[in-house]
Amino acid sequence: MSDEPTTAQWLVGGGGLVGIGAGARWLIEWWGKRDERRQAREERLIARESAQVQDLNSRIDQLEDKLTKLTVAVNILVAKEFRSDPSSPELMQVQAILGDAFPLHLHVPQDMHDTLGRM
């Protein structure tokens, strides 16, 4: 006969029970920390999304600021051209290009025109 213990002897002798106990303890700890890992992962995602949203909001604010400045500049140039030649083909081109996004009102009501003429 060999001196090696049988499986039953090994399990009962402590080696197997210690191994099974250690494995069970690891499994229980892993299972218990699963929610903590998920929560940490969600917090990282939320923080990253928040940073991206803040970055996008600042970029949108910059674009809106640039757009406002461009709108003012175009309106100044259109007003100058309109004063010099109200039926200018360039004004019609600008009106066609800008379309509905930035409507240009190139006509002056007659009563306003008369009032401006008296001034």
What does this structure look like?
The protein has helices spanning 7-13, 15-84, 89-98, 110-118. The chain is built from four helices and no strands. Helices cover 81% and strands 0% of the residues. The longest helix has 70 residues, at 15-84.
What is the element layout, followed by pairings?
Blueprint: H1 7-13, H2 15-84, H3 89-98, H4 110-118
Return the string of H and E elements.
Answer: HHHH
Oligomer: single chain
Q: How many individual β-strands?
A: 0
Spans of at least 5 consecutive residues with low confidence: none
Strand content: under 5%
- Give the helix level as a range of percent: over 70%
Structural class: mainly alpha
Gyration radius over CA: 39 Å
Q: Ends: how far apart? A: 126 Å
The main sheet comes to: none
In short:
This protein is mostly helical and 119 residues long. It contains four helices and no strands.
Features:
rod-shaped, mainly alpha, 119 residues
